[in-house]
Amino acid sequence: KVYEDVAQLPGLSYDFIVAGGGTAGLVVANRLTENSKFKVLVLEAGVSNVGVLDSEIPFLVGNLFGPTIYEWNYTTTPQSGLNGRVLSYPRAHMLGGCSSHNGMVYSRGSADDFNRYADLTGEPGWSWDQILLYFFKNEKISAPADHHNIQGQFNPSVHSTKGVTSVSLPGFDWPIFYHKVLQTTKELPEEFPFNLDTNSGKPLGLGWRQSTIGDGTRSSSATSYLASEFTQRENLHVLVHAQVSQLVDPSNVAGKVVFGGVRFSQGASQFTAKATKEIILSAGTVGTPNILMHSGIGDQTILKPLGIPTVLDLPSVGKGVQDHPFFSAVWSVNFTQTLESITQNTTRFDEAFAEWNKSHTGPFAMLGPTHIAWLRLDPNSSIFENFTDPSAGQDTPHIELSFSPGVGLAPLTGPGNFLSIGVVASDFDLFTLREALKSAQRFFKAPVWQDAIIGPTQNLENITTDALDAFIRNAVTPSSHLVGSAVMSARDAEDGVVIPDLLIKGARALRIIDASVFPIIPSAHTQAATYAVAERAADLIKQRWM
Ligand SMILES: Cc1cc2nc3c(=O)[nH]c(=O)nc-3n(C[C@H](O)[C@H](O)[C@H](O)COP(=O)(O)OP(=O)(O)OC[C@H]3O[C@@H](n4cnc5c(N)ncnc54)[C@H](O)[C@@H]3O)c2cc1C
């Protein structure tokens, strides 16, 4: 059951306490309460997701950003690589966490990514072959909103229809755009080969976008893992508006620290909840190290000056986080089947809204982007003279191009119809971002676009590298794929925060299960990998206590 007020809870002693009811936290709570003997309390700082229409309607997610109650409303420190700009950094402050307000891309990453995690941690359980089972436990392939025939748009043999979170192909037809994008894979097959399914472990190429959408509605960890059939469980209690501040009652058991519970606040009041079996931190890449450090777990040279007594000296806490830089490039087009035909036309916007309300169909049943290309840099690129390739292997992309029949996330420059690519790149960023833009420019030079493209909205083609770099430094924003603030490492490694079964080093009965544990960012949007990690971690906990 989901509770709004702590006074409604029957008590404050549970077998397991999950701090953070986000993407990963709700997976863990759901799976543990499959065992009716386990009593689980989830403490979520944010609000309930129920009835939040902008979270339900895929097209309207943008309304949840900016200073809203659904957001922690974080900003970054000035970013020296981005001309000192201070950027907003979205993190959801609601049940379901970022899965309740993200872009819904379902992308798993490459097999190489997971095999590298297995190598780094010495734990074969994180390898692609073994983690695939957990992607399947999470994923429920569902019909697209328009129920079109999806044969030839994905490979069913690398998917599951039996999981919990709905995943589907685009549910609304943009015929001119679809045709031209797919035709480009035939005209420029070397650079943009068609990939039937970029979620097979081999993502390279251009394929149909898969999204965490079912029945034309966002499928988040809150709508899926907290569906009514699960909230009816008597052993599952979820409390919203409950912000965990720290772990309490540390004691020493056989040389390891054990915490008795957590302190949390609701309104102006403070409470303590006790955990008799385990405490699980799932507060996300920002929230989890925050709780750790307030509890005395972190780098003692940082904790001491803050007056926080060190309980566990783990210098890696909160350090080395990674994200993917993102920017958009926009081309003006002469066809009118674009997102602008809806966003710039009140009548069509209202019709689309009415259609979604009636049947969960129409353009509101998806976000803008329809296809994704995952690309590698040319192996002969000059960058490799100075940098070791940061990718996990030959089947792993450096670049993502996300194709949208409209401006998508980029600011609209004026009336008209547009298409855009969103560029998402990994490390050694400026070089890769420049190459990504050039790749997109080549894409739209394919013959099939010549009768449709009016031109780019900004001249980024015949300018100097310095001018292009200046543009990129001003345009890049985070992808919000933040990972790595409490990374897993090998059991005997001196660095890292958790061992491969996600228990905190030097502690007992205290785990971290969220995106903060990834030692290196996956070459993908991060929710699918986070779901898979949470599914596997829940199994590890069950094995420990059953
Ligand atoms: C704007 C945006 C767009 C994105 N788009 C995509 C996409 O299209 N596809 C994709 O794969 N990934 C996307 N991501 C990334 C992906 O959603 C995240 O990597 C993933 O959801 C993180 O899951 P998590 O469980 O680690 O954290 P979260 O889902 O953030 O969960 C953490 C939860 O803990 C709560 N919390 C934090 N601190 C406390 C505390 N002290 N006490 C109690 N509760 C607390 C938070 O309110 C939150 O509910 C996007 C992210 C954002 C923000």
UniProtKB/TrEMBL annotation:
<feature type="binding site">
    <location>
        <position position="244"/>
    </location>
    <ligand>
        <name>FAD</name>
    </ligand>
</feature>
<dbReference type="InterPro" id="IPR012132">
    <property type="entry name" value="GMC_OxRdtase"/>
</dbReference>
<dbReference type="InterPro" id="IPR036188">
    <property type="entry name" value="FAD/NAD-bd_sf"/>
</dbReference>
<dbReference type="GO" id="GO:0050660">
    <property type="term" value="F:flavin adenine dinucleotide binding"/>
</dbReference>
<keyword id="KW-0732">Signal</keyword>
<dbReference type="Pfam" id="PF05199">
    <property type="entry name" value="GMC_oxred_C"/>
</dbReference>
<dbReference type="GO" id="GO:0016614">
    <property type="term" value="F:oxidoreductase activity, acting on CH-OH group of donors"/>
</dbReference>
<feature type="domain" description="Glucose-methanol-choline oxidoreductase N-terminal">
    <location>
        <begin position="284"/>
        <end position="298"/>
    </location>
</feature>
<dbReference type="Pfam" id="PF00732">
    <property type="entry name" value="GMC_oxred_N"/>
</dbReference>
<keyword id="KW-0285">Flavoprotein</keyword>
<feature type="active site" description="Proton donor">
    <location>
        <position position="481"/>
    </location>
</feature>
<dbReference type="InterPro" id="IPR007867">
    <property type="entry name" value="GMC_OxRtase_C"/>
</dbReference>
<dbReference type="InterPro" id="IPR000172">
    <property type="entry name" value="GMC_OxRdtase_N"/>
</dbReference>
<keyword id="KW-0274">FAD</keyword>
<protein>
    <submittedName>
        <fullName>Pyranose dehydrogenase</fullName>
    </submittedName>
</protein>
<feature type="active site" description="Proton acceptor">
    <location>
        <position position="525"/>
    </location>
</feature>
<feature type="binding site">
    <location>
        <begin position="102"/>
        <end position="105"/>
    </location>
    <ligand>
        <name>FAD</name>
    </ligand>
</feature>
<comment type="similarity">
    <text>Belongs to the GMC oxidoreductase family.</text>
</comment>
